[in-house]
Each structure stands twice: as structure tokens, then as C-alpha cells.
Amino acid sequence: MTTQTRPQTTKPAALWIASDGRITCVEHGGMALAAAVEARPERLAHVTDLDDWQAITPDHIEQWAAQMGADAAAEVARCETCRMQAPAREDQPMSTEPAPVIVYSRPSCVQCTSTTRALDRRGIRYEVHEMTEDDAARFKAQGHMQAPVVVTEADTWAGFRPDKISTILAP
């Protein structure tokens, strides 16, 4: 009797879901998730100091599509930070859509105002989201300790950073 084993892939999953429901890519999931995935890219689950992570698979997408419809499932299956979309099927390549600049701001925040003014001067389109306590906790876990937190397609940073703003390509 011969036993066939399924070949293991070493390509890490594109998106991960935390036990609290947050969805992220490895880049925006924090150093602990990135280290765990780098060490064992074939695993579909990782336990880090901060959270339990499970890889989002095509089965998740199918279940979400059955529960809420394909369009809603596609919206759910995105990194909260970079808006990367998960493939609907294994044979489809992963796609990304350009994400706008998002500024997570606090009321009466001088650095937040300075950031939006600098973006305005450069003609860069952006969205301002009021930073919730959940957002603040997520950003703190990623090492961002002050407002605003600016999320672009290519980078994420905290505080007023004219050097970073100057690297954003205007439309």
C-alpha cells in the first residue's frame, strides 16, 4: 500500500484573520506575525504573543460569499490597512487596487492638521478617519505610538512626517 501526500507549498498566505476578526496582510500584521510566517510559511495558523492568526483561504471566501453575497465577501476579504484583495479562487492571481491615502486622526491634533495641510498643498487626495480606540490599539500593536497614522499604498507611519509625504505621488 502506498500513501500519497499532498505537496506542501512554501508560499505564505496573502491575508490573515486574527481571533478578533481583524484582517491583514503579513506586512501590516505586525512583527510577530511576519516573523511567524517567515519561519513557517507553509502553516495556515500561527499563534503570536498578541493574537491567534488563521490564513484566509478560498474556502473562507466561498463561505462569506454564501452568507453575504460575492460583492460583500470581496469587501470583507481585504487587508484593513492596504486594501489588498484576496483571490476568489486558488487559480486566480491576487490583485490589488490603488488605495487612497488614509489619515487616522484625533480631534484637536496639531500633527494631524499639519499632515492634512501638507497633503492639500501637494494636491494629494486623502480620506480622514477619526481614530477609534480599536484603531489606536491596532496601530499601537504595530509600533505606531502617535497620531495621525497615515496609510498609503506603499507605507504606513505615525506623526507629522513631511519627508514621507514628499514621497507620495500626486495624481
UniProtKB/TrEMBL annotation:
Record's Gene3D superfamilies?
Answer: Glutaredoxin
Classification via InterPro entries: Glutaredoxin (IPR002109), Thioredoxin-like_sf (IPR036249)
Q: Which Pfam families match?
A: Glutaredoxin
Q: Which CDD domains match?
A: NrdH
Q: Please report the stretch or stretches of sequence annotated as the Glutaredoxin domain.
A: 101-141
Q: What is this protein called?
A: Glutaredoxin-like protein NrdH
Q: Which organism is it from?
A: Micrococcus flavus
